[in-house]
User: Which sequence fits this backbone?
C-alpha cells in the first residue's frame, strides 16, 4: 500500500496569494516525515495557520503542490481527505448539542463505522486522557476548558488518523492545564506514532514538543531545524528575537559544546622527556599534573606529582611513570552531557580531544563556574556574540559591574 | 335576558352556542396555523439560503420588513382584490405577516452558530449538507422556533380581522356582537377565546423553544 519511508506531507513551492496581491504565504517548501512533531511558529500574520490549513484543504493554495502520502491533495475529495486527518482548533469546537460520545465518534460515524466499534473506540480513547467513562454521556458545557480540549484531542484520533493538525490548541488555557495537555499530546504522539503539525506562537511550547521547528515570518519559511539546532544556530536576527536572548543564554548549557568553553594550550609534555624536565615544567606553570602527548599531539596519558615523587629515583623518562587510564571528553560533545560526569568524578580538569584523539585543551571546574555565572548574570563582554540584541546590553553590563 | 349581568350573559351565550363557538375557535386556529406553516415551509429555507449567501440577506429581509409595515386591514383588502372574499385571503395575509419573523429568526439563528463549531465540523470532514442538518439547524432550532412562536401569536390576531372578508373564525362572533344591540357578551364570547388561544400558543411554543435550546458551552 503506502510506502513507510515516503514523507507524509510535502509542500512543493506552495503559494497562497489573495486577490489584490495580498501574500499569505509564498514559496513554501517543506517535508514532513512520518512521526515528526512539526511546530509552525511565527508572529500573527506570518502565515503559519494558512500553511497548516492548506493540508486539509480548508484553504486552497493558489500555486504549487501539496502531497499527502505521496498523492496530490488537489486531486482528492476534500471531505474524504479531511476525514483522514485529525483537526484540533484553539476554541475546541466541540458540538455543544452532542454528548461527548457523539462528539468523539463523529468522524467514525461519518465513515459509517458500526455502533459497537464506535463505542469501543470512544471507551478506549477516553481512558487514554484519564477521564471517567461516565463522561461519555455528558455534554461539553459540563466540562472544564482543559477537559474539553482533552476531548478535542482524542476526537482527532478517533478514526485512526495518522496526521493530526493542531491550530494553537492550548492558547486559551491556563499555564498548568496547558502543561498537562502538552505532556498528554507529546505522550500520545510518541506512543501512537502519529505525525503532528502544530501551530503555535509560544516558543517554549515549540521547544518542548517539536522534533522539527519551522519558523515563519511574513509568509515565508525562515528556518527549519530541530529545537537543538535552532538554539545553536538561529539563522537570522528575527529567529534570535523570536527565541529571545534570555532563552538563548539559558539554553547555552544545553547547546554549548565542550570545545566552546575549554581552555586552549593545556600544559602537556611528550613521553620522551626526562622527569627532571617534567618537574621543571610543573613548577613553571604552577600545576601538579601534566598531560602526556606524543610528537603529533595525540593524547597518551598523564603524570601527576605523587607518582613523580615516588618514582623519581627509579625512573628517568616521562613514559615510565605515565598513567594511561585517562578520562577525557570529545571536543564536540555537548556540555550538558559532560558536565555531570565531570562533576561526579571529582576531577579538577578534563582533557578535551578532537575526532582524531589529538589534545585540544582542557575543561576545568573554574570554566564551569564561569558558565553558570554567565547563565545567571548574562553574557560576558569579552566573548560576546550577541550584538543582535543591543537593547539588552546596557542592562546586562550594569548588572555585571553592580 | 336583560336582567342578567354581562358575564352571566356571556356564560349563557357560551352554554347555548357552545358548539358554534368551538367550531369557530377551531376554524380560527386552523387559519392561523395554515398561514404560519406555509410561511415556515417557505421562510425557513429562504432563511437558510440567505445565511449561506449573506449578500442576499439585506434585500430579502428588507422586502419582508416592508410587508410587515403595511397595516393588516389594508393588506387584507388588497389581497381580497385578487383572491376575493373567503378564507384563502386570510391565509395568504397570515402567511405574508409570518414571513418576516420566520426568515429573520432563521437567518439570525444560523449566523449566530459559533463559527469555531462550523470550522471544526468542516475540518472533520462533514459535507455542506451534513453540516446543515447535523450542526447548524440543531443549534439554531430554538431561535427559529422563537420566530414561529412570534408569527403564530401575530397570526391569531390577524385572523380575527379576517372576519371582515368573510373567512369566519372567532372574529365572526366579535363582528356579530358589534352589530347587535347590547352585544357585549357576544363580543366577549369571541374576544376571550381569541386572547386565550394567543396566550396558550405562546406558552406552548415557548416551552418547545426552551426544550430545543442547545446546552451552551460554559466557556
Assistant:
Amino acid at each position: 500500500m503506502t510506502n513507510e519511508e515516503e514523507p507524509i506531507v510535502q509542500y512543493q513551492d506552495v503559494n497562497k496569494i489573495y486577490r489584490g496581491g495580498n501574500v499569505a504565504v509564498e514559496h513554501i517548501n517543506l517535508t514532513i516525515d512520518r512521526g515528526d512533531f512539526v511546530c509552525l511558529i511565527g508572529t500573527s500574520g506570518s502565515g503559519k495557520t494558512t500553511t497548516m490549513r492548506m493540508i486539509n484543504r480548508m484553504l486552497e493554495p493558489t500555486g504549487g503542490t501539496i502531497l499527502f502520502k505521496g498523492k496530490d491533495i488537489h486531486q482528492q475529495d476534500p471531505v474524504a481527505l479531511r476525514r483522514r486527518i485529525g483537526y484540533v482548533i484553539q476554541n475546541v469546537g466541540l458540538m455543544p448539542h452532542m454528548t461527548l460520545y457523539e462528539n468523539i465518534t463523529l468522524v467514525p460515524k461519518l465513515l459509517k463505522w458500526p455502533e459497537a466499534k464506535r463505542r469501543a473506540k470512544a471507551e478506549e480513547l477516553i481512558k487514554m486522557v484519564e477521564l471517567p467513562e461516565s463522561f461519555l454521556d455528558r455534554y461539553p458545557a459540563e466540562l472544564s476548558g482543559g477537559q474539553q480540549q482533552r476531548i478535542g484531542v482524542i476526537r482527532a484520533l478517533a478514526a485512526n488518523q495518522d496526521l493530526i493538525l493542531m491550530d494553537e490548541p492550548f492558547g486559551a488555557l491556563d499555564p498548568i492545564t496547558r502543561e498537562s495537555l502538552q505532556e498528554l499530546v507529546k505522550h500520545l504522539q510518541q506512543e501512537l506514532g502519529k505525525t503532528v503539525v502544530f501551530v503555535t506562537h509560544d516558543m517554549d511550547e515549540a521547544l518542548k514538543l517539536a522534533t522539527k521547528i519551522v519558523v515563519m515570518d511574513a509568509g515565508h519559511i525562515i528556518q527549519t531545524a530541530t529545537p537543538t539546532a535552532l538554539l545553536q544556530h538561529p539563522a537570522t536576527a528575527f529567529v534570535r528575537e523570536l527565541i529571545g536572548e534570555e532563552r538563548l543564554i539559558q539554553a547555552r548549557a544545553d547547546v554549548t559544546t565542550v570545545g566552546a568553553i575549554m581552555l586552549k594550550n593545556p600544559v602537556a609534555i611528550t613521553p620522551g622527556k626526562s622527569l627532571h624536565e617534567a618537574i621543571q615544567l610543573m613548577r613553571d606553570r604552577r600545576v601538579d599534573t601534566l598531560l602526556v602527548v606524543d610528537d603529533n599531539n595525540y593524547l597518551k596519558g598523564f603524570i601527576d606529582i605523587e607518582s613523580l615523587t615516588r618514582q623519581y629515583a627509579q625512573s628517568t623518562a616521562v613514559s615510565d611513570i605515565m598513567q594511561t587510564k585517562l578520562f577525557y571528553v570529545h571536543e564536540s560533545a555537548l556540555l550538558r552531557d559532560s558536565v555531570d560526569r565531570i562533576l561526579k568524578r571529582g576531577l579538577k580538569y578534563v582533557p578535551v580531544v578532537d575526532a582524531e584523539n589529538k589534545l585540544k585543551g582542557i575543561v576545568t571546574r573554574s570554566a564551569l563556574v564561569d558558565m553558570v555565572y554567565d547563565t545567571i548574570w548574562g553574557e560576558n563582554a569579552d566573548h560576546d556574540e550577541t550584538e543582535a540584541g543591543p537593547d539588552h546590553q546596557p542592562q546586562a553590563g550594569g548588572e555585571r559591574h553592580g | 335576558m336583560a336582567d342578567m349581568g354581562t358575564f352571566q350573559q356571556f356564560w349563557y351565550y357560551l352554554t347555548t352556542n357552545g358548539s358554534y363557538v368551538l367550531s369557530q375557535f377551531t376554524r380560527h386556529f386552523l387559519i392561523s396555523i395554515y398561514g404560519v406553516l406555509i410561511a415556515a415551509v417557505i421562510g425557513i429555507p429562504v432563511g437558510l439560503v440567505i445565511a449561506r449567501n449573506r449578500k442576499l440577506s439585506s434585500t430579502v429581509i428588507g422586502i419582508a420588513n416592508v410587508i410587515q409595515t403595511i397595516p393588516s386591514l389594508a393588506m387584507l383588502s388588497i389581497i381580497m382584490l385578487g383572491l376575493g372574499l373567503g378564507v384563502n385571503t386570510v391565509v395568504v395575509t397570515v402567511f405574508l405577516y409570518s414571513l418576516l419573523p420566520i426568515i429573520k429568526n432563521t437567518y439570525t439563528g444560523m449566523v449566530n452558530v459559533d463559527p469555531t463549531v462550523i470550522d471544526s465540523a468542516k475540518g472533520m470532514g462533514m459535507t455542506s449538507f451534513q453540516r446543515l442538518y447535523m450542526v447548524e439547524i440543531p443549534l439554531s432550532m430554538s431561535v427559529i422556533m422563537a420566530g414561529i412562536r412570534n408569527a403564530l401569536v401575530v397570526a391569531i390576531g390577524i385572523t380575527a380581522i379576517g372576519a371582515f372578508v368573510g373567512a369566519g373564525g372567532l372574529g365572526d362572533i366579535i363582528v356579530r356582537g358589534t352589530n347587535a344591540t347590547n352585544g357585549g357578551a357576544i363580543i366577549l364570547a369571541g374576544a376571550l377565546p381569541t386572547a386565550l388561544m394567543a396566550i396558550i400558543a405562546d406558552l406552548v411554543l415557548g416551552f418547545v423553544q426552551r426544550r430545543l435550546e442547545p446546552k451552551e458551552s460554559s466557556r
